[in-house]
């Protein structure tokens, strides 16, 4: 049975430090900037902040390439700034979760420097080194297998110094740790986990949590994308043979390290898997991770190669959304509800309608969907404003290494004028990670929306701050998306028994292509939710027709009887008695 826990009913606000608030005018957000905005965050009614990596890093992958787990990157401030942020947040009753990036580190980390110094270095096996498979006609070394990096090209990097390749599933300078060695795991726990527990954090968002364990022998991946020398090797490292053993071990370490009895929030970036895996990761009795991020719903329409988009139906989306939490039903497992993060585009553009006519109401509709679902709710900075994507198909307008790396790969493998390139460019304004990474818009009237006083921010703002998508204008407008989110978070708390913890979820009209409607239960109560994913009026079948419907909440002010058609992008929550 589902137990109530603080971290299940908390609302978490995710902060991307580079793009939240710059306090010293160098064009980058920083920790003191976050501290200066704690009142704004508190005002939203969230309980926790998760701060993306702020550790020392050469920033090849925006801080997910960590060179020192125990030191703040100087542009983000000092360790003292970080400890101050934690204590000021705590004083306001806000808990703090940090990112735990331990599938890989940066090639600048001293451990990797030692490892690459020679083939006989005592730390050689701390990373995954292999000799070339052979040499091509031009004498170039051939990678040990055909795995593709998430950022394009081979997942292997050749190191001239020792004439071997190291595995790096992500960027060229993000070497994967060799988790097979106990010595490596202990060293990771001690620094990346222990140091931050000692400094008072309330939990961890665990990066790439499903990929630490690679299948022995590192076999070639089957060819799913003909013509490309590099293939998706996920079957050999996602949810690998020892992954659950590793999480059990790390969980034990965390529990033993906490000295004051606080219970940590842990959320694993699991991405893809089957029900058996989701349950094993998150079941309380397995003692691994508190909850997980499933990627199914945010990936609908993406290809085996992410940027190869294809059409999908609302039914595909509904089923994918449900996969996030259905496995939790009346068990001791748990999951998350989210629709944006720093790796995803803006949800209004992707799943709502970002035209001036429907932006506000469709952003509110997505909020209604999220507060109605079972799991811990995560809101990403700017989502509470109904931020939208910027519209560019030119790779030059994008910063992200994932865009740049895959652009180079498509160019090299297929050419600048190929149909593959055309598809790639069309995908950019839809799904690039950069849409989430434009600096936060605080006000309309200051340069760069008040994010920085520098002439040039590290990444340009979305120009929509001039059209009212900024915190100040929205706080001044009672009908804005931000005010709706505040209310929505209160409603979720008020009705948490059913909204947060409800069970026996059931779709109505699953095949319907505009209607997202469902029923779920809690002890003694039944909830019915109807959401119109279209820009026109929608009449729908009312289930439980003999029953009494009591309105709870909606995005059009007054809430009529369910027999009244839904207005464009209208959503309604009712109790059914
Ligand atoms: O972003 C993705 C899909 O768009 C994923 O492939 C993503 O790279 C993967 O989920 C892992 O993400 C995490 O680790 C990466 C980092 O770039 C991401 O920002 C982070 O969330 C490497 O550390």
């Amino acid at each position: 049975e589902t137990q109530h826990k603080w971290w299940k009913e908390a609302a978490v606000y995710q902060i991307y430090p580079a793009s939240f608030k710059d306090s010293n005018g160098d064009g980058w957000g920083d920790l003191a900037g976050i501290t200066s905005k704690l009142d704004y965050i508190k005002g939203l009614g969230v309980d926790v902040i998760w701060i993306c990596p702020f550790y020392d890093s050469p920033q090849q992958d925006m801080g997910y390439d960590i060179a020192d787990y125990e030191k703040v990157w100087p542009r983000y401030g000092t360790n003292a700034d970080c400890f101050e942020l934690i204590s000021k947040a705590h004083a306001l009753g806000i808990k703090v979760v940090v990112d735990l990036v331990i599938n890989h580190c940066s090639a600048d980390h001293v451990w990797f420097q030692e490892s690459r110094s020679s083939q006989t270095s005592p730390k050689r096996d701390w990373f995954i080194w292999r000799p070339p498979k052979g040499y091509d006609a031009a004498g170039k070394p051939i990678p040990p297998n055909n795995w593709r990096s998430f950022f394009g090209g081979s997942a292997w990097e050749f190191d001239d110094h020792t004439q071997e390749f190291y595995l790096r599933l992500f960027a060229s300078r993000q070497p994967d740790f060799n988790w097979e060695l106990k010595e490596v795991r202990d060293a990771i726990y001690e620094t990346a986990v222990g140091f931050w527990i000692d400094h008072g954090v309330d939990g961890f968002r665990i990066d790439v949590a499903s990929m630490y364990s690679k299948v022995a022998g590192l076999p070639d991946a089957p060819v799913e994308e003909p013509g490309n020398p590099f293939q998706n090797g996920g079957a050999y490292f996602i949810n690998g043979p020892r992954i659950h053993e590793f999480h059990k071990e790390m969980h034990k370490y965390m529990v033993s390290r906490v000295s004051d009895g606080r219970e940590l929030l842990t959320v694993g970036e699991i991405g893809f898997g089957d029900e058996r895996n989701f349950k094993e990761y998150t079941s309380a009795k397995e003692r691994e991770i508190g909850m997980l991020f499933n990627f199914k719903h945010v990936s609908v329409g993406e290809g085996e190669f992410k940027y190869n988009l294809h059409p999908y139906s609302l039914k595909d989306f509904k089923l994918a959304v449900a996969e996030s939490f259905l496995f939790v039903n009346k068990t001791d497992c748990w999951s998350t509800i989210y629709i944006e993060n720093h790796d995803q585009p803006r949800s209004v553009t992707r799943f709502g309608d970002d035209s001036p006519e429907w932006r506000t109401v469709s952003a509110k509709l997505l909020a209604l969907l999220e507060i109605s679902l079972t799991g811990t709710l995560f809101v990403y900075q700017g989502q509470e404003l109904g931020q939208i994507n910027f519209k560019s198909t030119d790779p030059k307008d994008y910063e992200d290494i994932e865009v740049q790396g895959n652009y180079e790969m498509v160019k090299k493998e297929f050419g600048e004028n190929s149909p593959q390139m055309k598809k790639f460019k069309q995908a950019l304004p839809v799904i690039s990670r950069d849409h989430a990474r434009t600096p936060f818009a605080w006000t309309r009237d200051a340069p760069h929306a008040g994010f920085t006083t520098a002439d040039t921010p590290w990444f340009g703002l979305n120009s929509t701050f001039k059209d009212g998508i900024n915190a100040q204008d929205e706080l001044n407008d009672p009908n804005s998306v931000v005010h709706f989110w505040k209310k929505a978070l209160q409603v979720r708390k008020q009705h948490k028994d059913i909204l947060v913890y409800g069970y026996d979820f059931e779709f109505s009209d699953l095949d319907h292509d505009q209607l997202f409607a469902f029923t779920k239960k809690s002890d003694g109560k039944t909830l019915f939710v109807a959401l119109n994913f279209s820009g026109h009026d929608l009449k729908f079948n009312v289930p439980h027709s003999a029953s009494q419907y009591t309105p709870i909440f909606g995005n059009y002010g007054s809430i009529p009887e369910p027999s009244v058609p839904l207005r464009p992008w209208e959503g309604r929550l009712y109790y059914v008695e």
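The pocket of 6-O-alpha-D-glucopyranosyl-D-fructose is lined by residues 61, 64, 101, 150, 170, 207-208, 269, 271, 306, 342-343, 433 (CB under 6 Å). DSSP finds 16 helices and 20 strands in the chain.
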